[in-house]
Amino acid sequence: MQKVKLLYVEDEPFLGKIVKESLESRGFEVHMVADGGKVLTALKQFQPDICVLDVMLPNRDGFSLAEEIRRLRPSLPIVFVTAKTQTEDVLQGFATGGNDYLRKPFSMEELIVRLHNLLALAKGRSQALAHPAGIVPIGRYEFLPLKYELRIGEKTRKLSAREADLLKILMENRNFTVARKDILMKVWGDDNFFNSRNLDVYITKLRDYLRDDPAIEIITIKGVGYHFVTG
Fold first, then answer.
1. Domain 133-229 indexed as CATH 1.10.10.10
2. Torsion sign across C-alpha atoms 73, 114, 82, 14
3. What is the pTM of this model?
4. Class of the domain covering 4-119
5. pLDDT surpasses 90 at 91
């Protein structure tokens, strides 16, 4: 199996060495860059599948780099890692083209989950484009996200906008774990307690809607999120 090529931009040598070795032990091919001024050259030469990008770098900051990377590689997933904790920094990270944001110190397990989620999301988007009629197969079901419909045999169920958005996220991350917080931010725009309880209700509804195919499961990973299995 071909390795996922990961461009890792980090100027702290000790942290960089640990993360690089850990990623390589998980099957990633990692090219590490410590100087912000050398990132774009590495991007063109290495042609990564995903990028992990620190914000505070010598010669060039991660936010401005992300903007240029996004222009050169519009679909490349970018994960920011930084010691910055202010909400405005997080918002700036997303505004400049980041797909995810991880605060230091972080666990390798969380980083790995987020990388796999983004890779699966990118793959899911490309696969969705392969269905010109807008029909996405889910086991025995057909999902029509543009029409908010879920079909099986002769039965068609109309979905609410949030039900469709939630199912789309799960489908794009099928056979991977998607973080609960990520779902809340994408569907509700806030991960507060009220929205979290709403998410529980919507997950229960989707499980009921998909019960006619026993090969489909929405597995709760306690304290992390959900794992969508489609057989």
1. yes
2. negative
3. 0.56
4. alpha beta
5. no
